[in-house]
Amino acid sequence: MGSLIFVGLGLYNEYGISLRGLEKAKKAQKVYVELYTNPMPALSLENLEKLIGKPVVELKREDVEEKPEKSILEDAKKMDVVFLVPGDPMIATTHISLRLEAQKAGIETEVLNGVSIYSAAPSTIGLQIYKFGKTVTIPFPTSTYKPQTPYDVIKENMERGLHTLVLLDVDVEKKRWMTIREGLEYLLKIEAERREEVVTSKKLVIGLGGIGSPNPMVKGDSVERLVKYEFNVFPQTLIFPGKLHFMEVETLKVFAGVPEEVLQSHEHG
Predict the structure, then answer these.
(1) What domains can you pick out in the chain, each with its CATH number?
(2) What is the pTM of this model?
């Protein structure tokens, strides 16, 4: 019986893999990777293969979700297999299901964690991670699919004084990332309909682009100003702060460049 080892790649490129993860990949008899949960903007499969010293087989969503027994699990029954995953391996429910299937099939599994946006985004701007509420994703809207869940989650967290991490959608097939501007415009349209003062033009929001890269972009301001700000690195993320500790106020000034008047308005809003 072989094994299946899930290894996190981090957020930006192939150099986000841990030394332990790299060692496991070098020793494995077969290495797979998936890039559909997060098409890492600067990942080079060619460089990754050079680092590991062997070919890396890319799996599509259907390979992992619909027929893993015909690829990765089939191999893991008879050899040591490493599965490289963007971010942290167990953040996506897809990978949890795959690990459960492997365990049920008698395959030994192991998880080597990687850097996740859930920890990296708060760390970058100095917000306290235990003060975050539920996370939500803004999807690319269609003519029939424009859910208001992102607005509801921000409202619920705000009422509890909690910060909200808002992830922005990715269209893997079109290699398209939702921008901060598109995300804010999505929320502003809901605000215009509902008028519950959750995402108003004066509301404090933080935009983050390219977290995990050598030169991430971080900017905090009012919604009306941030929607005009040019973020040119991906992927992009939003944070709506809740009730702020005095140290968080200071970190947002220093690390996110939030203007004093916007922080004052937030604290007294």
Answers:
(1) 3-112 (3.40.1010.10), 117-267 (3.30.950.10)
(2) 0.93
